[in-house]
Write a structure and sequence with these properties.
four-stranded parallel sheet; 2 domains; nine-stranded mixed sheet; ATP binding; 15 strands; Rossmann fold; 20% strand; alpha/beta; globular
Amino acid sequence: MKFLRYLLFPFSVLYGCIMSIRNFLYRVNVFQSRSYPIPIICVGNLNTGGTGKSPMIELLIKTLQNKHRIATLSRGYKRTTDGFLEVHPHHLSSEVGDEPLQFKINFPEITVAVDANRQRGISELLKNHPELDLILLDDAFQHRKVKPSLSILLTTFNDLYTRDFVLPTGNLREFQTGASRADLIIVTKCPHNLAAEQQIRIQKQLKPRTYQNLLFSTILYSEFVTNEIEYEKLADFDNFTLVTGIANPKPLVTHLKSMNKEFEHIQFADHHEFSETDVKMLQRESVLLTTQKDYVRLKSKLKSSKLFYIPIETQILNQTGFLEKYLEGTLF
């Protein structure tokens, strides 16, 4: 597979050049980016998937929700509906996408919407909710039709974009130079005890511009697992099968193994829509543990109290209070 990717190198160069030309045309205003009267924060990546966008969106919500009226806008990946749609807790993940539904379940007081056309989505949000004073765009770093007030670029500790190449040889959506559009670069999924020397080494690899801030974050796993009705201590939770349909389940697997958990792991592709065959197979397992993103896709199909998920959150390392001060000072 890796050899085949190398053979496709000329196509990677062609694709990267096409993306660079597109970005250039936006930069010189041949293609127009639209601005809006309220702040728009764009969260995205250069790599394809698995950088922790959803936990980062949730961190931004937690950081700002007490002072601002927030909406999130996603495209609603793999949903069966079209156009603009406001998300409600009663929706199925197949109707609105798993991540937007997760946002609405975790933060019922904010407005959550989906629309592949981000300009139309923002316009609908502003028309329907004139009280809004901040919109978070999920996975929109390459969506140039909207001019964000702030762009946040995510890259993972074990898969920095500087060590990768453009699709299909690598996993980048555009050349590394696209990182210059970011105002804030966050290295995600770092070890909790990331040393200052390692941070300096990563900073030298990423080479942020003078106008760019660089932060490091880590994933925190809850001490409890839940099915929205009951909670159990993860330390006492045993004899389960782990089922994942996310881009990179390795951090979760590593965390569970660090707690000396023994389990079988059934792994599906990212955003996998569980079929009847999948559900019948999973139904035979005694107890299932999954991520919340998978849980919102599974819970309506696998009607069982034996399905649990482990909540997670992202935390900025060694910069207590910086994110809120930075966002407030930059946007408001």
